[in-house]
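Lab notebook, page 48
Experiment: co-folding of the full assembly
Goal: obtain a model of how the components sit together before planning crosslinking
Operator: M.T.
Materials (sequences as entered):
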Amino acid sequence: MKRHLRLAGLVAGVAIVAAACSTGTASTAPSKAPSAAPSGAPSAAPSTGMVDLAYKGEITYWNTMRDIEMVEVQKQVDAWQTLHPGITVKMTLTPFDGADKKYETAANNKTAPDIFRSDVGWTSGFAAQGMLLDLTTLFPAGFGDQFLPAPLATGTYQSKLWGVPQVTDALGLQCNKTLLTAAGLTAPPTSWDELVSAGAKVTNLTEQKYGFYMRGDSYWSQPFIWGWGGTLFTANAEGKVTDIGVNSPESVNGWNYLKDKVLGTVTPATWDFKTDYDNMNAGFKAGTTMCILQGPWAVADILKGAAFTDKTNLVIAPVPVGVNGKTGSPVGGHNWVVGVDVGANADKTAAVVNFLQYMTSADQQAILAKSLGLLPTNIAAYAVPDVASDPLINQWNAVMAAATNRSGVPGAQGIYDSFGKNFQLFLTGSSTAKEALDATANTWETTVFKNQMAQ
Amino acid sequence: MGSRGWVAWAFMAPVLLVMALIVFYPMAIGVFQTFTNIDNLNQGTRFRPPSWEFVGLQNYIDILTGKDTKFYPVLAWTVVWTVVNVFFHYTLGLLLALTLNQRFRGRTSYRMLLLLPWAVPAYITAIAWLFIFNGEYGLLNNVLGAFGMPRVAWLSTFPWYYIMPIIVNVWLGIPFMMVALLGGLQSIPGDLYEAAQMDGASRTQSFWNITLPQLRSVSSTVILLGCIWTFNIFVVIYFITGGGPGGKTDILVTYTYNGFTLGQYAIAATYGVIIFSLLLVFSAVYRRVARES
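Observation: model returned without errors.
Model output:
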């Protein structure tokens, strides 16, 4: 009698967990979970979620997210494990910085995890080195069609699928509505000229009140290249670099605009590059900075700030346009990639594929969109009522529509080291924009793309 | 003699074996790589056969002739960094040692307190200093701001990005010098000072004619050690400036590390061998000069 009660409690608990993990829309998974749990092995498998997986054991997963995000993802992992008793997804937090090198080393030593959360810039490099499992034929037909084209392209290399899009992002202009009003604006500025002239009204450098704040980092410098009509480099369909254009006159103009018009007017003339990411967020959260360039990954943290206890005080817009009406924001994000060794075990492959299908389903992506403000890669997730009614996600849609996709050349993540150093040398006055960009182009040609230049 | 030599070797065998595995073998590989063009793409993995080639002394030639434009600027800053740091380590360490060598109340607790920088892991120290130096919200800038002075982005402004890591490293290096020199001071026989006093020598004269000469063997050793450690200290530069802005504060070891992380193994290994050779030559010359003087 008591035994039965306990079992009933367990079933109810499972039901609650499962239900909690698929908010809103009707999915077959939660309703099946309770009935399946007591019998031990689910027999009648519905189409999604509850496939009877032969694999029993562990699936290792290196996740490069932040703590705040890991908590939410762990809930999803737990829910999936409940659906598939006997399989444990062992998720390990791997710090994003340096994770690519760590993964490469592990892959060479046969100690790579089964699943790795790879930056979109890393995927083609891993694929070119033969470290990844080709996913092209493993998923049901039409699997790729459910994703937004830009993130899907980042997981594709030489017409094969190597990475499943987990999340997409782009830098956007995040603004404090109260300060916008104080600067005489009713909406976020759409051009850099507008940002500078309005931002100057709420800027007082000695009191640490800024119209704008950014990072002394090459990733943040890209809008000032694209917005002036410049490019980084161009690549052909085989993933070979055909032209390095980062040191074009347009890029030089954009960087000079940043230094001459923006720095010292609405931002400090120079700032601490070592801690600027945290300082940028801190000032924005405290309500002393009007606008910053930040990605959707930071929204959950920003909303904890004193300035945003009223969520509607945060407004997000595409990166302002430069001199010739162009905007530019790098499309980023992450893919799930699968280690090539997983392919040797068909049962394990099926389990991994099932897990990734579950995690990329519209329902699951909607959960992270709602709780963390992350942008889904699954088109259907945007139609989930909770997401569709979220004003911030809708504002991000406009950002993504205006964002620039980066070329997926193997090793392209290597461009940012010399790029960033030269950007800092330019910002601190050690070199001119032309010198810094020429030096960057030279390093790309002779080192980063040494083996990737089209002949 | 012969049998005792065998016993000695037997006792040393485990150590030699471990050292062969974790020191000599990797070192030999490192030296070997300096004669190749090996990098992360051509090193050969289980997915792809190796395709690197022998390049002879080309890496050394590129670096030493200045074709690698970074080497001499980085070396120059590394030398300045070492000299300035060791100078302050030694002078301030000696000053504190002299103070602590007097008898006064609470001497033991002072000694404990002054050892503190040594007791805290260096990277924690570095991160704590980073909070002080923070360009927007750091303690230093808040104090300046309270006095109505302008804020400074310490780690991005010349010459502060050179000075700030030196301050941290001086703070870190003093305790070792202090303890070593205090030991040296305590081994100077007291009657030397008594005799000097009898002859009417002033305290300054005693310092220059007794203390310093008596400390010489300790000093020459700790200065040599200090030079080698400072030349090769990684954590301070890595955590305080990260080599920034734009690689300006990289010293040879952090620059070499950067080369490894970018996968340029041959170049980085060559830097490693050059650093090792520089220190070897420096130690030999220094030893000779110290012995002769």
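Interpretation: The first helix of chain B runs from residue 2 to 33.
Next step: discuss with group before ordering constructs.
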